[in-house]
Write a structure and sequence with these properties.
Blueprint: H1 3-32, H2 35-61, H3 76-104, H4 113-140, H5 143-172, H6 177-204, H7 210-221, E1 226-236, E2 242-251, H8 256-274, E3 276-285, H9 289-305, E4 309-318, E5 323-330, H10 337-351, E6 356-363
Parallel strand pairs: 2-3, 5-6
Antiparallel strand pairs: 1-2, 4-5
Helix pairs in contact: 1-2, 1-4, 2-3, 2-5, 2-6, 3-5, 3-6, 4-5, 5-6
C-alpha cells in the first residue's frame, strides 16, 4: 500500500474514534454540568480537525514535482503539521478562558456511574489510539501523524485528570472542576507551543540527525580513494525526500575519469543505503612536503590559540606565488565571525610572513 494511503487510513481511524468520544463526552458533560468534561469533548473535536488536515496535507504532499517545484511538494506535510499545532494551541487558549470563568463563577456538578464508565473507556481508547497513530507516524515518517499520536496520548492524561476531579467531588464533595479544566488547558497550550516550535524548525531547516550524518560520512570515507569528508549538508523537501551535498578530499593524481567513477559509486551507495540523492564535490589533496608541513603548522597554531576552529580543509599552497588558501569551520559560539576572521588572518601572517592567506570561514553544517 502506498504511503499516502496508509497515512490516510490511520488518519481516518483517528477521526472516527474522536467523533465518537467527543459525542459521548459532550452528552455526559452537559448532563453533569462539568466544564472539564465539556472541554475534553472540545479537545476531541480538535483532534478530528487534525485528522482531516493530516489527510489533506498528505494528499497535497504526494503531488509529483513540476517545473515550478522541481523538488516536489513534500513540505506540505510540514505545513499540515503546523496547522495542527496552531489548532491545538487555539483549543488550549479557548479552554483556559472557559476554565477561568468556571473558577470565578463555580456551578454545581453531578456525576453518575455512566459518566465514570465513559471517561474510563475514553482513557483506554486514547492510549491505544495514541500509540497506534504515533507508531504509524514514525514508521511512515509522517510528522503530522506523530503530532496527532502525541496529542492523543496527552488526551488520555487530560481525561484521566478529569476522571480524578470527578472522583474527588464524589468522595470528598470538593469541586475542583474549574481548576482541573485550567490545568488541562495549560497542558494543551504547552503541547501546541512545542509542536509549533518543532515544525517551524523542520521548515527552516534543522541540523541533520548526528547519527545519520556520521553514518553517511563513515560510508563515504570507507572508499579507499577518499582521505577526507567535509561540508555534508542535508536538505529535507518533505518526510520522504532528502537531497544533500558533500565535498570529499582525494589525491590530486586521480584522473578526471577516475574521479567521475568514484563520485558515481558514492552517490549510488548513499542512495541505496539512505534514499538520499547526494551531490559530490572534490578537494584535491597535495602530499608534497612543503604543503603538509605548512598545514601541520597551521593546525598546531589553531589548536593552541583558536579552539573555536573545528577543522580546516580544502588546503592549497601555491608556493610559486606565495599564496595559501583553505576553509576553516567555526564553532557557532563565535558571534562576530568577521572580527574573528581578521584575527586569524593577522595571526597567520605573523607566523608565516612569506605567504598571503585566503581563509574562507565555513559553517558547521553537520556532526
Amino acid at each position: 500500500m502506498k504511503r499516502e494511503r496508509q497515512i490516510g487510513r490511520v488518519g481516518l481511524i483517528g477521526i472516527c474514534v474522536n467523533v465518537l468520544l467527543a459525542a459521548f463526552k459532550a452528552v455526559i458533560g452537559a448532563i453533569s454540568g462539568s466544564i472539564a468534561i465539556v472541554l475534553d469533548a472540545v479537545n476531541n473535536l480538535s483532534d478530528v480537525l487534525s485528522g482531516l488536515i493530516t489527510i489533506i496535507g498528505t494528499k497535497l504532499a504526494s503531488k509529483p514535482a513540476d517545473k515550478d517545484h522541481p523538488y516536489g511538494h513534500g513540505r506540505y506535510e510540514y505545513i499540515a503539521a503546523l496547522i495542527i499545532a496552531f489548532t491545538i494551541l487555539a483549543a488550549g487558549l479557548a479552554a483556559l478562558y472557559k476554565a477561568i470563568g468556571k473558577i470565578i463563577h463555580p456551578s454545581a456538578v453531578n456525576y453518575d456511574v455512566i459518566a465514570f464508565i465513559i471517561m474510563g473507556v475514553a482513557v483506554v481508547t486514547k492510549i491505544l489510539l495514541g500509540h497506534y497513530t504515533k507508531k504509524a507516524g514514525v514508521r511512515l515518517n509522517s510528522g503530522s501523524l506523530v503530532a496527532s499520536g502525541i496529542d492523543a496520548l496527552f488526551d488520555a492524561v487530560v481525561t484521566s485528570a478529569t476522571l480524578i476531579s470527578a472522583l474527588i467531588f464524589v468522595v470528598f464533595g470538593l469541586n475542583l472542576d474549574g481548576w482541573i479544566g485550567a490545568a488541562i488547558s495549560l497542558l494543551i497550550i504547552k503541547i501546541g507551543i512545542e509542536l509549533i516550535n518543532g515544525t517551524i524548525s523542520d521548515l527552516l531547516g534543522r541540523r541533520p540527525d548526528p547519527a545519520l550524518s556520521r553514518s553517511i560520512k563513515e560510508d563515504i570515507i570507507s572508499f579507499p580513494e577518499v582521505s577526507g569528508v567535509y561540508d555534508l549538508s542535508l536538505n529535507i523537501y518533505g518526510p520522504s525526500r532528502m537531497i544533500g551535498a558533500v565535498n570529499i578530499e582525494i589525491s590530486e593524481k586521480l584522473s578526471a575519469r577516475e574521479i567521475h567513477e568514484l563520485s558515481l559509486r558514492i552517490r549510488k551507495k548513499i542512495m541505496a543505503g539512505y534514499g538520499i540523492y547526494l551531490y559530490v564535490g572534490i578537494y584535491a589533496e597535495r602530499l608534497d612536503e612543503a604543503n603538509l608541513k605548512l598545514k601541520e603548522g597551521i593546525l598546531k597554531l589553531f589548536k593552541e590559540k583558536y579552539p573555536q576552529i573545528l577543522e580546516i580543509h580544502a588546503f592549497f599552497l601555491d608556493e610559486k606565488n606565495g599564496k595559501v588558501q583553505f576553509d576553516a569551520v567555526l564553532d557557532f559560539s563565535v558571534k562576530d565571525r568577521s572580527a574573528f576572521h581578521q584575527k586569524i588572518l593577522v595571526a597567520l601572517k605573523k607566523a608565516w610572513p612569506q605567504y598571503d592567506f585566503s581563509v574562507n570561514i565555513d559553517i558547521d553544517l553537520s556532526d
